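Q: How do we represent a protein-ligand complex in a form that can be generated token by token?
A: Start from the inputs.
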Amino acid sequence: MTLLKDYLKSQILKLEGTKVQEIQAKSNILVQNYFKISKADLHIKDIPLSAKDITHLDSMFAQLFQNKPVQYITGETYFYNDKFLTPPGVFIPRPETELLVDCAVEFLSQSKNSLKIIDFCTGSGCILLSIAKKFPNHEYIGLDKSELAIKTAEKNRKSLGLKNVQFFNQDIFEYNQSKADLLLCNPPYLAKHEIDSLEQSVRDYDPLSALTDFKNGTSFYKHLISNFNKLVKTNGIMLLEIPFSAVTDNIISINKNFNANKSLFYKDLEGKNRVIKIY
Ligand SMILES: C[S@@+](CC[C@H](N)C(=O)[O-])C[C@H]1O[C@@H](n2cnc3c(N)ncnc32)[C@H](O)[C@@H]1O
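Then emit the structure tokens for the protein with S-adenosylmethionine bound:
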């Protein structure tokens, strides 16, 4: 009878020397996800594996050998305080994006009125839903060009039991409906030429249209900032995630050139500018 501990050890040994990074952590996530057990249980319990368990685990580890992100193998990602469905084809939420949620929370904490919050490029809906859970009395709209992203965001909304949140399958460049009090966006911000130098597990698995604008990385910022007054109400703000690259300087000059709104940067835990507030 094979025990889980021994199975795990042998898979980790086989993964050593491959290009897969953080082997132990990723292997643990796969096993915990399959057995729905805590990390502590994983090390304490001697779980015997049935033939069916082994078949299932083998298939998960075969995907890890291909350097597929664990979030696409399990189909879920933890973000802020919740778990979100993230099937392959939907952008995996990154921990650094939690800063955008914190900035939105700071803004909304100062308001007593019911506001309209719009999230462009919503993906799994992780940003919008995390905020809607904290402030259920506002009106929330999320847009994405990907139909799969919108279907996934809607499933995530249902599983969190949130009302007042609507998702639409729409290109943000064509959006000309109502204005927002708070407009959020974590857009595709890599330049096309940066794609080749990405880590293989990102380049091969995250949807390309979530990573790059297929130009120099500034298209979304240019559009949003130049249309600030059409998209945002008086006294409203925009919060945009920004990359740590030359794009940051471009965003500042785009803002100066178009409407000279005030702007403020927020830094991530590494001290890098990660969010820009335009107001
Ligand atoms: C970097 S991901 C962000 C997803 C999510 N907001 C997050 O932070 O995890 C960018 C998203 O933009 C969407 N997207 C790309 N081009 C778009 C467009 N023109 N209009 C609307 N959504 C777009 C992609 O489908 C992808 O879901």
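The chain has two domains: 4-67, 80-278. The mean pLDDT is 93.
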